[in-house]
Description:
By secondary structure, this protein is of the alpha/beta class. The protein contains 10 helices and 14 strands. The chain has helices spanning 67-74, 96-101, 118-128, 138-144, 160-172, 190-205, 217-223, 241-247, 292-301, 316-326, and strands spanning 21-32, 41-52, 56-60, 82-87, 90-91, 103-106, 178-182, 209-213, 226-231, 234-240, 251-257, 272-275, 280-285, 306-313. A 6-stranded mixed β-sheet has the order 6-7-8-3-9-10, sandwiched between helices. A 4-stranded antiparallel β-sheet has the order 2-1-4-5. A hairpin with a 2-residue loop joins β4 and β5. The longest helix is centred in the middle third of the chain and has 16 residues, at 190-205. The protein is elongated, with a radius of gyration of 24 Å. Residues 1-13 have low confidence and may be disordered. It binds adenosine-5'-diphosphate. Residues 32, 41, 43, 61, 63-69 line the site of adenosine-5'-diphosphate (ADP).
Amino acid sequence: METLIMTLPRRPNTPETVPENAVETRDLCKTYAAEGKDQAKKALIDVTIDIPRGSFFGLLGPNGAGKSTLINILAGLTNRTSGDVRIWGFDIERDMRAARRAIGVVPQELNIDPFFTPRETLELQAGLYGVPKRERRSDEILKAVGLTDQAAVYARRLSGGMRRRLLVAKAMVHSPKVLVLDEPTAGVDVELRRHLWDYVRELNAQGATVLLTTHYLKEAEELCDTIAIINHGRLIACESKKALLGRLDTKEMILTLDRDIEMPPPQLAAFTTVLKSSRRIAVSYPPSRFNSGDVLAALSDAGLGINDVVTREAELEDIFLNLTRSTDGEKT
Ligand code: ADP
């Protein structure tokens, strides 16, 4: 992809004061009505979230957790049952038009009209949002997402990755303050995924708030500065990635010894140990109380030499599994 730089012009509907949070929900609930044999489904239960302005915010949760429901409410596609939602300070009901103008959503499905070209698609979308002709930036946006060469090609001839990029472009035509990406890289190859992230990161660096849902925990770990986790419709964590990762106070060292042992030596009693083979031992410790030197000293006290050491820190996946496991008893 060529240059990824693009500027986000000011929109006339910005409130006088810039809000601290780009998105706020308060006690948000959504219950899908009972239908046929299906019982009523509580998809969101008292969800209160602040998405700080300018953040790269990750919304994580297993399938059926309520992520799409939340995003659809923000996008004005689903009605909430109760609670309040503000986008860029605008109440989604009282100031519906301004709230909608402040948000751009890249949907999960590749729903693009195959009979329009990318340029026509963007112009149409700009028309829907009432962006005056002189303020439209269709070609600039197409360039930013690497679709300049395809600007006049019928969308049905675009590859899956190109369609995905066109959807991102479509969500950008009205220069939204908040860009929502719903599982945007499902089915996108690695290289395209990287391009897409370069572009979204650039938008974030320019001030756009990005809300991302993803199944790829690694992706969230790499990109997001703030992370919320929902499970069974309830918010179970919402904090900075650093604080979240800090919650799991554990580090692991896997040591290859210079000789066979039958059981962990008593000098390691202060740590959690697992003998992986007669020469490999995994040692876990809380970094708030010990460091790797303490482990090495204990092994030295036991008269053991070390041929190799691998260390592993807690990853988002560990926290995610821990948190979702502990709430899995709560069915709604
Ligand atoms: P996620 O996006 O995290 O996979 P969803 O928001 O799609 O979760 O779904 C949350 C829950 O609400 C699920 O149990 C799902 O089956 C249910 N649900 C979603 N949409 C509807 C609907 N239109 N009618 C009834 N139930 C729904």
